[in-house]
Give the backbone structure.
Amino acid sequence: MAVRPEADAPPVKETEMATAPVTQAPAPAATEPSVSLGERFGNFIRAVLPPLLGFAFVIGVWALVAMKSADFPSPAKTLDAAIVLFSDPFYSNGPNDQGIGWNILSSLKRVAIGFGVAALVGIPLGFIIGRFAFMNSMLEPIISILRPVSPLAWLPIGLMVFKAADPASTWTIFICSIWPMILNTAQGVQRVPQDYLNVARVLNLSEFKIITKILFPSVLPYMLTGIRLSIGTAWLVIVAAEMLTGGVGIGFWVWDEWNNLKVEHIIIAIFVIGIVGLVLEQFLLLIARRFSYGNA
């Protein structure tokens, strides 16, 4: 039986050829160069060693001064006094004998009130001065005269007006911390690009929208700089003001310890005042970093 040969299959076009999908191996992810344990330790030493050497130098000089003067407390004696002092920082044995914790809180309360009122007055006033040339010309000479006056020169005015030491100290904080906020805010408003204001004029925006949508985002970094300068000045002034007015507060506590000839407590207060001031400044810096400084 003859076998019929199969018909030749038609040629398959290249486009009709079924080709298996070719999968490429994923490219290796770019890996950051690994940091060895030795490099990490070296970076840690370079970051920590200089401050430690600085503190060691200060303590060494302090110890030498204490060795030369019998009245000056040594670092060890001051540390022992600090341990006793902070073992009960919130004791209260009457209005003139309270722990260092209450004195710090009283000073912070005065600073918060005076600084807060200064912000409520100074920041809007800075916007007005920077926005309107007439107000700038009217208030600039007054600010130029009053700003260089020592904050303590205002304390007798506060005592005469308020008839009490506590509001007089708060008044002193207010008058010393308002100037940086006014000047920095006004400078920020004056540096807003004129193109932004021209666009607002074309769009017929209200003054409220100009302030909230254009001026405020642009002025924010200047305003925060003024606030940071003001809080540092306020914390400096409150110590001197409380030395003169008395009552409860870290400044009065320093003066009272001097009258009691407890020099080690004065040194402790110096460190406490510096640490609290540093914490306040770092807190404001943390707030400032959360805002975008790009002009909208």
About this structure: The longest helix spans residues 207-245. The CA atoms of residues 78 and 264 lie 5 Å apart. Confidence is low (pLDDT under 50) at residues 1-9, 12-23. The two ends are 93 Å apart (CA to CA).
